[in-house]
Structure formats: C-alpha cells, structure tokens
Amino acid sequence: MMKLKSNQTRTYDGDGYKKRAACLCFRSDSEEEVLLVSSSRHPDKWIVPGGGMEPEEESSVAAAREVCEEAGVMGTLGRLVGVFENQERKHRTYVYVLIVTELLEDWEDSVNIGRKREWFKIDDAIRVLRCHKPVQATYFEALRESCLSSNGTPLVATISGDLSPTYSINQSSVSDIR
User: Fold this and answer.
1) For the whole prediction, is pTM greater than 0.90?
2) Is residue 102 annotated as a catalytic residue, yes or no?
3) Of 33, 69, 118, 141, which one is the catalytic site residue?
4) What is the 3-class SS of the chain, one letter each residue?
C-alpha cells in the first residue's frame, strides 16, 4: 500500500505499518561514537537519521539514502541491527550499522532546513534520545545485545506503550515488510 505525502510517497507493509529505514552512523569500526542529527520539528533535539522507504526500495538502500539526505554522510553499510516496531505510531524500522567514510560539507537537509549533526559517545546518545525519541534509544540496547540470532535472522523489537522493547524472531513479519 502507498500513500502520497506532500513531498514523498509513504509505503506500508501488509500489516499497515509504515516502512522505514535508519542507520546508526559510527565514526569508526570501534562503534564508540555515533552521529545524531537535529530533529526537523524540534531543532534543539537529536535523533537517529532515517525515514520512510520508497516504493520497491530495499531497506538497506533506503537506509543509506536517508543518512545521506539527513546527515550528509556516506560510508560502509554493515549489519542489520534489527527491525523495530513502534506499535503506537505504526512504524516498522530497519536499523543498520553504517561506518562513516565521508562527511559532506553541504547536504540536502542542511541546505533546505538547516539540519545539524553531531558526534556523541554511545551513552550520551542514549541519554539524549531517551528524552525525545525513546524508541530510538532502544536501537543501542539491541546493538549491545547483538540482536541477530545464530542463523542471521533479525529479531523484531516490538515497542509497546511503556516503550520497553520485546524481542522475538518473527520470520513472517520480516518477510512481509519487504
């Protein structure tokens, strides 16, 4: 299913969840510092760069596109951290690791909406995200817990009203998202 927004097409999976993709953008392979961007709605708040998937777009391609648009970075796309369900907002977000290899001086969202970016130590990123985007703070919990099963099937993190994630291997949900 697709729905047109003023400047984009929103895509939904078979369960009616908006299909999204995002990246935890790390400065290096050590994954000690992560890049966050200012929120478009609340410029004094920080978020993980990501956004909606376009029709027929693979989640990995969408994730790389979104971080280039929102954070002005390019790099090496790594592992899938997990697929995060936000039941309150009806979103399913594929979250990947990206090791940054290039920082663009000017990028789409910096020029168009004045978006900023900043490097954070992981614990600091979690702290600032908990205030404004608590679901995004759970991405780091999943990263720390290596949310991939032994056979490489991503876990689905379901975020309920109290914002505590529940992890489960749900192959049907994963395949339905594509």
Assistant:
1) no
2) no
3) 69
4) CEEEECCEEEEECCCCCEEEEEEEEECCCCCCEEEEEECCCCCCCEECCEEECCCCCCHHHHHHHHHHHHHCEEEEEEEEEEEEEECCCCEEEEEEEEEEEEECCCCHHHHHHCCCEEEEEHHHHHHHHHHHCHHHHHHHHHHHCCCECCCCCEEEEEECCCCCEEEEECHHHHHHHC
Which one, of 20, 131, 36, 145, lies nearest residue 85 by Cα?
20
4-24 confidence digits (pLDDT tens): 444 568 899 999 999 999 999
Specify the pairing of strand 33-38 against strand 117-121: antiparallel
* Adjacent-strand bridge partners of 38: 46
